[in-house]
Amino acid sequence: NLSAIAYHFGGKEQLHEAAVQHALDELAPRREAVIQHLETILEQAGGDRIVLAGSIKLFVRGIFTIFVQDNFPVVPIRMLMREIHHPTSSFDLVIEGHINPIQDAVAGLAAIALGKDISDPEVRLLGMSVTGQIFMLGIMQPVVLSRMGWSDYSADNADTIIKLTTTSILRLLGLPES
Questions:
Q1: Which of 25, 74, 119, 124 is the most buried (most CB within 10 A)?
Q2: Spatial separation of the C-alpha atoms in residues 111 and 100, rounded to whole Å
Q3: C-alpha radius of gyration, the chain, whole number
């Protein structure tokens, strides 16, 4: 009831903010793992474009696999997606707490691949495009399954998605495909 919300949270807006913060906290281990994995990829590649391309293939497979696992926290992602599509006063929490850290890590990858500064608008936009390609195919699993006429992401279906996504990302970043 409204009086309980007011008592515990101060109002509906604060309740919503607490729910968004809870979603961010629930996703923190996965977000930090993605960022750490990207940092490791960049360190291991050491500027070698062939190594970087191979690492991206492994990265795409790893992220996609996480998204299609049964224990992936879909509810927090949906909450953040709702906040992105219909911003409230909690929008900045989502941007600062989730979007920016991931986008900055992927932009770092794009910057190295393109040989440009991370602040370059092209680098930042390509970083968002790379992120979108990987994340949307996992998040939109019901849409993909329906459009493709698949009942699930079988190993073959997943391999097809991973291969096409990886090829697209390598081309976007101007990295070798083989």
A1: 124
A2: 15
A3: 18
Task: Return the axis-axis angle of helices 100-114 and 49-67, rounded to nearest 10°.
Answer: 150
Other beta carbons within 10 Å of 77: 19
CB-based contacts of 141: which residues, under 8 Å, 6+ apart?
67, 68, 153
Q: Determine contact, residues 22/28, Cβ cutoff 8 Å.
A: no
Q: Can you tell me whether residue 178 is helix, strand or coil?
A: coil
CA distances from 53 to 45, 155, 164 (A): 9, 22, 14
Is the Cβ–Cβ distance between 157 and 126 less than 8 Å? no
Regions of the chain short of the pLDDT cut 50 = none
pLDDT single digits (tens) 73-90: 888 988 999 999 999 999
Q: Indicate the DSSP class of residue 96.
A: I
Secondary structure string (H, E, C) spanning 126-144: HHHHHHHHHHHHHHCHHHH
Task: Specify the 3-state DSSP secondary structure of 177.
Answer: coil
Q: How many other C-beta atoms can be found within 10 angstroms of the C-beta atom of residue 142?
A: 8
The confidence score (pLDDT) of residue 8 equals 77
Q: What is the pLDDT of residues 48-62, one digit of tens each?
A: 999 999 988 888 888
Phi (first) and psi of residue 13, to 5 degrees: -65, -40
Which residues 6+ apart lie within 8 Å of 107 measured at CB? Answer: 118, 123, 124, 126, 127
